[in-house]
Amino acid sequence: MAGEPAPISPDARRALEKDLADLRAERDAVAATLRGGNDYEGDRADQADELQRADDLTRLDDRIDELTDRLKQAAVAGPPAKGVAGVGSRVTVRFADGTTQTLHIGEIADDEDPSVVTADSPLGRALMGRRSGDAVAYDAPAGPSTATVTSVGDTHSR
User: Fold this and answer.
1) Closest by CA position to 16, among listed 87, 93, 80, 92
2) Residue ranges of the Transcription elongation factor GreA/GreB N-terminal domain (predicted)?
3) CA–CA separation, 80 vs 9, rounded Å?
4) What is the dotted CATH code of the domain comprising 90-153?
5) What value does the mean pLDDT take over residues 29-44?
6) Which of 82, 88, 79 is nearest to 132 (CA)?
7) Beta-strand (E) ranges in the chain?
């Protein structure tokens, strides 16, 4: 799956679009504080502050480009096929110790919902593109681990 555009859930799309709007507003605010040009009339502290804002602007531009690209890739990818785990899917997994858990593959971690695994986490990456009955291997904090996908639900908005 690496290198292929990955779909995202409607909730993740909305969150990324909000982050993008916030970053653009922050960028506009930072850009408005820059004097432009190389003629610094202030002391070294003023010059350092100006350089820091220019660095902030570059960081914001990079993040804006990253989010814009991610949203474009998601639009190209479309939703995952029915029965195939992808961003937004509910996936029930039986772990090596016999426990079963239903997880939601998300684009963004959610501290309020421990059932969310991000698509770029070790378990999330292992689940992407899998179907019911597939065995997966992934690196858990305690070391290598395995699990079996017992079911894959359709993507839906939470």
Assistant:
1) 87
2) 7-76
3) 10
4) 3.10.50.30
5) 72
6) 82
7) 90-95, 100-106, 116-118, 135-140, 143-153
Please state whether beta strands 100-106 and 116-118 pair in parallel, antiparallel, or not at all (unpaired).
parallel
- The C-alpha atoms of residue 13 and residue 108 are separated, in whole angstroms, by 10
Number of Cβ atoms within 10 Å of the Cβ of 83: 13
Quick one: residue 105, left, alpha or beta (phi over 0 = left, psi -120 to 50 = alpha)? Answer: beta
Structure tokens belonging to residue 127:
């689940």
Please give the Cα distance from 53 to 92 (Å, whole number).
Answer: 47
This model's pTM is above 0.85: no
φ, ψ of residue 125 in degrees (nearest 5): -60, -40
| Pair 106, 117: CB distance under 8 Å | yes
Kindly list the domain boundaries of the chain, sorted by start residue.
Answer: 10-77, 90-153
Query: Which residues lie closer than 8 Å to 21 by C-beta, 6 or more apart?
Result: none
Res 142: pLDDT? 87
CB 70 within 8 A of CB 138: no
Question: How is residue 32 written in tokens?
Answer: 């408005």
